[in-house]
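User: Structure tokens for both sequences below?

Assistant:
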Amino acid sequence: MSRPGPIGGQREAETEREFLTADVPGAPHLALAELIAGNRRFVTDALRHPNQNASHRAAVAAEQHPFAVIVGCSDSRLAAEIIFDRGLGDLFVVRTAGHTVGPEVLGSVEYAVTVLRTPLVVVLGHDSCGAVQAARAAAETGTSPSGHLRAVVDAVVPSLRRARDAGVDDLDGIVDIHIAQTVAAMLESSEALATEVAAGRCAVVGMSYRLAAGEVRAVAAKPAELVGTLAPAA
């Protein structure tokens, strides 16, 4: 796997493999730097499309070592491998509408963090989120959608309450709060994830993606100092 300049450029296969484990000191920071570099390439149209050829497909067929988990919104414009300029075996992606988190999502994250030793978990939301809009509309009208869509809306309601308490009423401000709420909820609900973060083997970062600009920015992180490392892509 090739690496962009900010974290060392080309490396030997053995070093590359070590990078993918959560036991390497600073691995969460390295993984975050990798995502930032890829997003900058995407924003500036300097894509490398790494790990998308037949030889790499064969190389990762037997086992996987993703360096980041992406818990993202299912929005069709939020394809993680594209916006972070990555390829096969790089990202362990779990997507639901409004990046809502239930037992299956948490189980998937725990598998990546504890079994695959993935050192970074990213909650990826975006501006103009339809799930947040639907939840806000339901709250304003006192109605709920039918079918299983109601579960998505109900999962966003705590974020709406938090936004109201903070005096935030614009949609994108609510989205940011919902991303931060998802980060907090994951750590509160998953003892396995919280343990890995406390031990320094993993970090959780909430990012918001701008649909038109294509860039990501930090909204929340555990440990908190990681927020300062995520500068605007452009």
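Moving on to the next sequence.
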Amino acid sequence: MTARIAFVASDAPSAQTARGALVTRYGTVPEEEADVIVALGGDGFMLQTLHGSQHLPAPVYGMNRGTVGFLMNEYSETDLLDRLAAAEEAVINPLKMKAQTVDGKMHDALAINEVSLLRAGPQAAKLKITIDGHLRLEELVCDGALVATPAGSTAYNYSAHGPILPIGSDVLALTAVAAFRPRRWRGALLPKSAHVRFDVINPDRRPVMADADSIWVENVLWVEIQSEPSIEHRLLFDPGHGLEERLLREQFV
């Protein structure tokens, strides 16, 4: 039986053109009726699609019409049905962020790649780090810090010199961004079950913002982060080009 495909695309002209060609060739259905969702764009659009379809049973197969395309497969129009039939599935869980701002408001968000805290003023941020209720770092003076999933470990985390994590590992990366004190402290590896809390020291003079997959919260007072196992994102990849292989390959370039 032919799979019912929902084609979605970013606003980029190349993605819109690709969607038109694929819809003409294969037809399309609404996402709610699809057996598989095909996302056309870059990694940013893939994250947007995963967030938007997390309540649906259909897995997401991405084809790159952007730049890096780490979460995407190569684009081709002619052999899509065969590729979908042979695709390998990777299941990832997002991070859940809860944050309170200095005005007392609460904010919740989900992040597939990472939750990051960044200084929002001219002075370095000062953060206190607590893991599972135990104070682990009294004061981190830095430009920021982040918690990354294995799927997101090659993104901002890797640029900040954090470790690349195997996709099947039950581990999160806690990585500092330009740490000043403790000097050269770059973070820690945490179990996936860890509950991470950042408290902002002197938030009036040293404001900090939090970001969960491009959902920004300004002037945070504290941020709590933990994995959300009740939500599963299903991604499809061509055989031999899945997340596990890509994460391994990134460590040898």
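User: Anything stand out in the second?

Assistant: The domain at 95-227 is CATH 2.60.200.30 (Tumour Suppressor Smad4).
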